[in-house]
Amino acid sequence: GWAYAVIAFEDEGGETSIALEEGAMWLDDALPGNFSLRGGKFLADFGKWNTIHVHDRAYAFMPGPSEEFFGGELNVSGLELHHWFGVGDLPVRWSVGVAPQFGEESSDLGDVGMPQSSTEFSGEALGRRTPSQFLYTARVTAQHDVGLNGFFQWGLSAIHTPAGLAAPADTNGDDLVDAQMEASQTTVALDLSVRLPDPATRTAHAASVELYANSREVWDEGSAALENRDANGIWSDYEYSFNPEWSAGVYGAWWQAAANDLGAEWFTGAEAASSRALFLTWHLSHFNRLRLQCAQESPLDAENSWTLVLQWTVILGNHAHPLDW
Fold first, then answer.
1. Virtual torsion, Cα 256, 237, 38, 9, nearest 10 deg
2. Using only C-alpha atoms, what is the Rg of the chain?
């Protein structure tokens, strides 16, 4: 087997923090056939892009649906079993996982005596872990050849925790949290990706889309009980490479509040948010990239905001991803 680690040094507000984003081991040859096992802390095999860090994506920032439903990247600590096989010339891969801890750390979990109304997706939400509080994951994906050099990939993913989230509850109507209830969440996702390079002109088209259907339990003050809330989300991006050095693209996302009580209707605008961006990328080399991005976000219950981003990414030494499909 082999192991890897991803350590982040982040400077926020004049204070530098160090975080272990990933630290895991893969067992490949130790298992029979085309099975492999991953254990440790890692980005879960959910959707096409969750295993790819933000700096390696075609645009800056996380998609809004991921932020809303998972709190950002879906980071877990546990085990994942993978297997791939061929159906003729078609490669197919599936995985299942179990994670006693999951999600990003949060300092706003609705402590008793504090005003808080939303269920939190956080690894430390309940302070203890039993099988009912674990996160369970599954994914199946296949990659089809398109033309001489292109590919089309589809994937189906799902996560479920029976009681792993913390739902702050106001049980006596004083607008303060009196308890944290054990809540469930289930998310199903469909992802589609295509890349069509043209070696003759050295151009390429690349596009991805991910659709989410989310169901989460939240505390309902009216019924004084946990109730399911359904929400949808979608994000997509398209990038055109003019040549190996220059590319440009567009990104867009729409999502509903995970705790909305209006139902999972598509594009109604009720309790929903959206974002959009244009980006231009200059690939100075395979290891050196400069990106300019202009984005607008329409958040939940807030005014529209604009962001201008200049992102410079430099890679020193070998750089590869253990899961690229």
1. -90
2. 21
Nearest Cα neighbor of 71 from 24, 116, 118, 114 is: 118
CB distance 113 to 80 below 8 Å: no
User: Which letter, b or e, does each residue of 101-123 get, where b requires 16 or more Cβ atoms within 10 Å of its Cβ?
Assistant: bbbbeeeebbeeeeebeebbbbb
Of 292, 258, 294, 290, the C-alpha closest to 276 is 294
Residue linked to tokens 């980006």: 279
Q: Which residues contact 200 (CB under 8 A, 6 or more apart)?
A: none
The answer to whether residues 50 and 67 touch, using CB atoms and an 8 Å cutoff, is no
Q: Round to whole Å and give the CA distance between 49 and 47.
A: 6
DSSP annotation of 263 reads: -
| Token couple for 270 | 């009720």
Distance between CA 69 and CA 9 in Å, rounded?
25
Lowest mean pLDDT among 39-43, 48-52, 123-127, 307-311: 123-127
Which residues are within 8 A (CB) of 3 and not within 5 positions of it... i.e. 6 or more apart?
Answer: 23, 24, 25, 26, 40
Ordered alpha helix ranges (H), the chain: 64-70
pLDDT in tens, 53-78: 888 888 888 999 999 999 888 999 99
Tokens of 110: 């609705």
pLDDT at residue 273 greater than cutoff 80: yes
**For residues 189 and 159, is the Cβ–Cβ distance under 8 A?**
no
Q: Please provide residue 304's backbone torsions phi and psi, each rounded to the nearest 5 degrees.
A: -60, 145
The one-letter amino acid at 87: V
Contact 202, 243 (CB under 8 A): yes
d(CA 126, CA 269): 33
Distance separating alpha carbons of residues 206 and 225, to the nearest angstrom: 46
* pTM (predicted TM-score): 0.90
| Residue 32 DSSP SS3 | coil
Q: 6-14: long-range contacts at Cβ-Cβ below 8 A with a sequence spacing of 24 or more?
A: 6/53
